[in-house]
Amino acid sequence: MSFKQFSTDQDVIDFVQTHTAVFNNSPDLTVTEIGDGNINFVYRVGDGNDSLIVKQALPYIRVIGEAWPLSQDRIRIEAKALKQSEAFCPGSVPEVYHYDAASCAIIMADIGQYRNLRQALTERQPLPGVAESLGVFLASSLFYSSDFYLSSSARKAMVQDFINPDLCQISEEVYFWDPFCDHERNNVNPPLAARAAAWWQDDELKQAVARLKMKFQSQAQVLLHGDLHTGSVFVDPAAENKVKVIDPEFAFVGPAGFDPGVLIANYLLNLAGQARAEGDPAERHAYQQSILSDLNDLWCSLSQHFHGLAAEHTLDPCLKGTAIVDAWLAELLTDSLGFAGVEMTRRTLGVAHVADVEQIEDAQARAEAQTMCLDIADLLIKHAPQFSGMPVITAAVSELSFCR
Length: 404
Ligand code: SR1
Ligand code: MG
What we know:
It is a single chain. It contains 14 helices and 12 strands. The chain is α+β, with helices and mostly antiparallel strands. The protein folds into 2 domains: 9-109, Phosphorylase Kinase, domain 1 (2-Layer Sandwich), CATH 3.30.200.20; 115-403, Alpha-Beta Complex (Aminoglycoside 3'-phosphotransferase, Chain: A, domain 2). Helix 10 runs antiparallel to helix 14 (390-400) and helix 11 (322-349) runs antiparallel to helix 13 (363-383). 46% of the residues are buried. 5-S-methyl-5-thio-alpha-D-ribofuranose (SR1) binds next to helix 6. 5-S-methyl-5-thio-alpha-D-ribofuranose is lined by residues 37-38, 170-171, 174, 227, 351-352.
């Protein structure tokens, strides 16, 4: 069957009524387009009582149009990755009700009562238990797709299922190429121009990034979400499942440090944004401290949960025991910090910035926050192997970031 884009509300309603029984053929359904991402169309369908989400992937990038074609296989990958996450860490993703290959669309549960983590951080909301839950999510995702758990044949099948060349190419370009040279796609705040020019000439930095880039391109280590920034995480600290992770269309089997690194970076981007955001300096400073404490909690939770899973499920005689797990987690931390530095760079100099910093209206004040982002990125990329644990890093970051 050939692909047909949903072009009317009725198209979306017919799709939902054909493939689910949620609305019991109710005649009073409303459709709202709620997508605010760069790539796809997302609709909320409701009857006043119940609601669900429809996501459709077009054969190109939504914000660019047909000039940037993109494989629709990404929606198959997203549906499959969501199902994997549900299996690895039950309740951590919206339930998938239906995946439709012909329409390149997914129907899934509405997580409307959850709040976007980026927005919650930007509004300086208290988020008790969220960082620990993210640590559990990461540990489960990493462990159940790693050599510690999977058989050789299961791992090969997973790599094959998640071959995602178009989306990987986007990441290779927007993380590891554009922000390390004077690329036309870059978006450099004018007061930051001199710092950007120095960044592009820094050979020590680029050598450290080369190591990470080659890992990203060649190391098929675990199943990754592939775009685990705080906009891909929804939170409800009062709920049993405190986090819901969405949008794994960039999923592929890659280096284990990539997802934790991207997430850590987005917490740190918020921390830097707080330095020049609106509001009481004492409150902003206290929130920066709580972000650093969240990062310590996240890593502690990830490590503990990973150790627990390995002790319970690892069978391979060479991979059993705490020493090898400790060594694996130490390398994970080093790689995560490096990838965090790359994510902070691309969100500061590259094409896709983040609201945590962009909300600072005054260009000079924004450049000061962006300078802090680059200072932290420089520290993480060049010195990642020297940090023995997350508390050492958060202490070092604390010295670089301040409110005024
Ligand atoms: C051109 S697409 C840039 C970014 O949008 C997505 O949300 C991913 O983060 C991607 O890197
Ligand atoms: Mg996304």
